Amino acid sequence: MGKNLEWFEQPADRQAQDWYRGPIPPTSTPPPADEPVAPPRRRVWPYAAAITALSITAAGVWQQAQDDQETRERQYKVANYQGRSGAALRIDGVDAAVVARWSSHRDHVLVELRSYFDKNARLLEISGEGKKARSVREDGWYPETPEIVLPVTDALADVTVRIQVGGRTWTEGKHAPTRSVRLSPTGIAYDDATGERLPSDL
User: Fold this and answer.
1) How many Å apart are CA 90 and CA 195, to the nearest integer?
2) For residues 194 and 182, is the Cβ–Cβ distance under 8 A?
3) What are the tens digits of pLDDT across the range 114-165?
4) Beta strand pairing call for 147-151 and 159-166
5) What residue numbers bound the domain in which 68 lies?
6) Does the global pTM surpass 0.90?
7) Which residues pair with 148 in a beta bridge?
8) Which end of the chain is less enclosed by CB atoms within 10 A, N or C?
9) For position 17, what pLDDT does the model report?
10) 95 and 67 in a common domain
11) Please, which contacts does 16-25 make with residues 24 or more away whose CB atoms are closer than 8 Å?
12) For the chain, how long is the longest CA-to-CA vector?
């Protein structure tokens, strides 16, 4: 029993074990439970590139729509050009009107603020593009019509003026109600703050 047996004389189960033993592969040890397992890295650049491309396309479409809108507006102004505009207003109990007239050379516009002969009018003031004109009732006389001349480089562009009207209770040094009016050479006027179309005085 004690002699050494040849390999072919050894029991079958021992032969199966010893027939070939290659190198034992190393066993992988799982990371400790308290260390987070890093997720696999994802390739995000294709998504970022797609988003960037979509953004550029959307911006281009929006810009084209803006350009188309501006072109339509200019075409409308060319077709409906009158060279004058006016708005009827009631401010501080005074019926007033702001009227604009473009010059025949279309290089300037004359804007005036009228109260006609409203007995409540005490102050009329108009300003725009750094210019201002003012008229106050004195000695029972109605305020004169103040006017300003504004240079224009684009005869189709609207002009915006700021007006102040003081009514019956207005006194010098007291703040008067103010409105900002945008006048179009097509004869239409708008409240510049709200965009509301104002009744015409033409």
Assistant:
1) 17
2) no
3) 998 899 999 999 999 999 999 999 887 889 999 999 999 998 999 999 999 9
4) unpaired
5) 44-79
6) no
7) 111
8) N
9) 53
10) no
11) none
12) 147
Are 94 and 182 within one domain?
A: yes
88: its two tokens: 């009827």
pLDDT digits 0-9 by tens, 75-85? 888 888 999 99
Between these two residues, 186 and 32, which has the higher pLDDT value? 186
94-102 vs 108-114, strand pairing mode: antiparallel
pLDDT of residue 22: 56
Residue 51: per-residue pLDDT: 76
Residues 73 and 119 occupy one common structural domain? no
